[in-house]
Amino acid sequence: MNIFQRTDISVKKPNLTAWIVIGILAAATLVSTLIFYPKLIVIQTPYQVGDIADENIKAARDVFIEDGRATRKKQQESRDRVLTVYDHDVSLIDQLKNRVNMAFATPRAVFEQPPALGQQEGVPVSEAVENTRKLNLRNQVWEKKQEFEKTLGISISNGAYSILFNEKFSPKIPELINRILTEVLTNGVVSNKELLLRENDRGIVLKTVGSGNERHITNLRQFYSLDQAKTMVRIIGDPMLKGMEYNLVNLIVDFTQRLVQPNITLNKSETEKRRDAAEKSIKPIMYQIKKGEMILREGERISETDMLKLQAIAHQGGKKKLLGKALGTGLIIFVLLMVTYLIHLRHRPEIAHNPSGRLLFLAAVMVSAFLIAQVSVSLAVSLSEEMTYSLNASCMFYGIPLAAGAMIICQFMGFSVAFPLAVVTALLTGLLFENAYLMSLYFLINSVMGAYWSRHCRHRRDLIKTGAKLGLFNMALVAIINIYSLNLGVPEIFWDWTFAFIGGISASIVTIGVAPLVEMGFGFTTDSTLLELSNLDQPLMRRLMLEAPGTYHHSVIVGSLVEAAASEIGANPLLAKVCGYYHDIGKLKNPLHFIENQSEGKNIHNKLAPSMSCLILISHVKNGVELARANKLGQEIIDAIRQHHGTSLISYFYEKAKKQKKDQPVNIDNFRYPGPKPQTKETALVMLADQVEAAARTVEHPTASRIQGLVQQLINKTFSDNQLDECPLTLKDLHHIAKSFMKILTGIYHHRIDYPEKPTPGSAKEKNGRSDHKQPDSLQNINGSNTDDRPGTLKRLGQG
Known about the structure:
Elements: H1 18-36, E1 57-58, E2 63-66, H2 68-81, E3 85-88, H3 92-111, H4 127-143, H5 145-152, H6 158-166, H7 172-187, E4 189-190, H8 193-197, E5 204-208, E6 214-217, E7 224-225, H9 226-240, H10 246-259, E8 264-266, H11 268-280, E9 286-289, E10 294-296, H12 304-345, H13 349-352, H14 355-386, H15 393-397, H16 403-413, H17 415-429, H18 437-453, H19 460-484, H20 490-522, H21 527-533, H22 539-547, H23 549-569, H24 573-582, H25 610-630, H26 635-643, H27 651-660, H28 681-696, H29 704-720, H30 731-748, H31 764-768, H32 777-780, H33 785-789
Parallel strand pairs: 3-5, 4-7
Antiparallel strand pairs: 1-10, 2-9, 3-8, 5-6
Helix pairs in contact: 1-12, 1-14, 2-11, 3-4, 3-5, 3-7, 7-9, 7-10, 9-10, 12-17, 14-16, 14-17, 16-17, 16-18, 16-20, 17-18, 18-19, 19-20, 22-23, 23-24, 23-28, 23-30, 24-26, 24-28, 25-26, 25-27, 26-28, 28-29, 29-30
């Protein structure tokens, strides 16, 4: 089916998911609302402590105010009333007594062993046997020393152990130790008595470990510190140990002192827990300000209490009202953005090319415009109040460069996208001026005209001229507004004109300054950058000319073809031309593997398998993308390099592979480019021009009719292969493209007349008087050695 007879073409467009759309629009709405109402984040009162009130201030409603200072004081008092908790370990006495008894019982059991056979009581034994028995007994007891120390929990000297050995570890010794320990620990031993005595005025809570019983103790001096407890061991033990041997007394006292441990310890975590609970139990202390109650009188100095009242009124009254207005504003912004997206942006090819990135860019520009407007309004109001001469803030509003947002969008995405965003931005900016209709109208008209005049600006000087033109237009617009509002005072009109002109100039300056940042941040390429890249002296193009001259010549012709065709179908001619120049830069890596760069009839692919040749051809797309990224050519050019072959078939090597493998199936997908298919008009033009230009070189005797048939055949083939399904080309566009290609190619390959030359004797031209399109014999024999040496014969160029 011939595509030039069809009336429609289906175009697939990538759809942006609903969640991403809602997310971006919701984020833009939230940020814009916060810009319009910054007090949602921080509520400030117009006064500070120590200022003088310039008017009477009364409470507009009943307000409850929390007395923060009184509340904190009450909470601290509640914390201070909580007594410090100490743990009393009453089980420590029994633990120590058990250890002492067990430690002494082990060596004592050795002494209490019954005598061996033949050594019963009353039976005389020899002295040697008796000595042996005593030695064995001593050895057994000393073998228990380590176990004795481990059980008791303290280390003892050999001398002390000898004393115990002589006393045969009498049960009286552990009994005395336990009695002294019991009396000392029953009184209570604290680890840090100095810390304990700090609570002497209020007392402490003594909590029994295990049972959880608690007592309020006020006499804290009764408890021993660890040093006092050791001293009390000797004092308490003196009457108990009276009459005993001196060394044994010292040993019992020493053992007892070393066994004494604190059984009253501070429970810090429990104390803090109770204090936190007591603090939380205190409710905020509130007092009421009645409606109509005088908060401040004119001329009074503002105290901390007054400030507290003003802040409470601002938070409880003003914030609720502010939240209501902010919510309404946010809903208005969201609805406007959603309607604009659904009606104007959703199906735009500029958005469909990169939906999330482009929508994020538009949201960022709009939010930035709101931020500039908000800052400018605040600055204008502040300056008007501080100036010594009268200057109305509304004059300075005309100098806000709001048109820069529409101009920036137009520079990167065209007027058709900039127009609806300019309308939305102007309408919403009117909220900053208390819904002033005239200000919204002013910003709407000047934004639209700024975008309209900047749509073809390719140089910075063009943008400056546009800014000056916009400034003059603003002056005329302001004059009309003043006539409508009957504001005809000379000073006011002069200042209005001044700031209106500044607004136009500053809009162009902002556009010039922001454009490079947008290029880097969102992957755009401006016309200024494209003009630089279109210069054939660029490093990549010079490399292409020197290292791959055939590809260079092909790329230049493709650039000319797509530039002419782009003008016919409303695409970007400059972008199309640059994409045509750079679409084959990947061939720089292996230039001799491509036929246009081969010389002397040597084709490298004759020695390679079709699959390998196919991989080499396909690789030039990947290599081109890498080169484009390394040289920062821009996302549009990178996309053109990646998409200019789409998923087309390398038919020559596919057919060659089928011939070589007659008995084996050949996977056609291995001989297709990876894609994707062209997504934009410019990329589709590069695909078509690339195929047409390469094929046109093979036409013998290229006449207009042959070129026309070739162009139509190739475009039909590309269309039938579904390579144009994802780009926004229509059948009408394809007709214009074909006509443009035919016109350019016919001009390149037009017929030329034969130059007159002197016929040689016997030549066909001499005989028949006509040319047979063959070289004359005189030129065919130019390779002969004798020919070069004849006088008057031109020497062959390029040879030594």
